[in-house]
Amino acid sequence: MELIKIFAERLRELRLEENLSTKMLGEKIKVSDATISRWENCLQTPTISQIVKLAKYFNVTTDYLCGLED
Predict the structure, then answer these.
(1) Which of 22, 19, 5, 7 lies closest to 60, judged by CA?
(2) Are 42 and 35 in contact (CB under 8 A)?
(3) Beta-carbon-side half-sphere exposure of residue 19 (alpha carbons within 13 Å)
(4) Contact at 8 Å (CB) between 6 and 51?
(5) Is 55 in contact with 62 (CB distance < 8 Å)?
(6) Contact, 6 vs 66, CB < 8 A?
(7) Pick from 39, 41, 59: which is nearest to 50 by CA?
(8) Ramachandran bin of 31, using left for φ above 0, alpha for ψ from -120 to 50, beta for the remaining angles
(9) Is 15 exposed, middle or buried (0-12, 13-18, 19+ CB in 10 A)?
(10) In a 3-state reduction of DSSP, which class is residue 32?
């Protein structure tokens, strides 16, 4: 599976585990809800700094989020 698809799936799973809407997560990391949706649907790729923000927020590694480790 492509890494971007793994990222999208893991982001959605983490967001739903925390019972967050795309809007709520976007507010937490300072992006729009549309951006979160585009990431989860593989329509846009986040920047490195955005991946780091997500990893810190969800307390996971960037490698996990990007599909490089389980």
Answers:
(1) 7
(2) no
(3) 0
(4) no
(5) yes
(6) yes
(7) 39
(8) beta
(9) buried
(10) coil
As a whole number of angstroms, the distance between CA 61 and CA 70 comes to 10
Task: Look up residue 37 and give its two tokens.
Answer: 């949706």
Per-residue pLDDT of the chain (70 residues; tens, 9 = 90+): 698 999 999 999 999 999 999 999 999 999 999 999 999 999 999 999 999 999 999 999 999 999 999 8
b/e per residue 33-48 (b: at least 16 CB within 10 A): eebbebbbeeeeebee
Residue with structure tokens 């997500």? 54
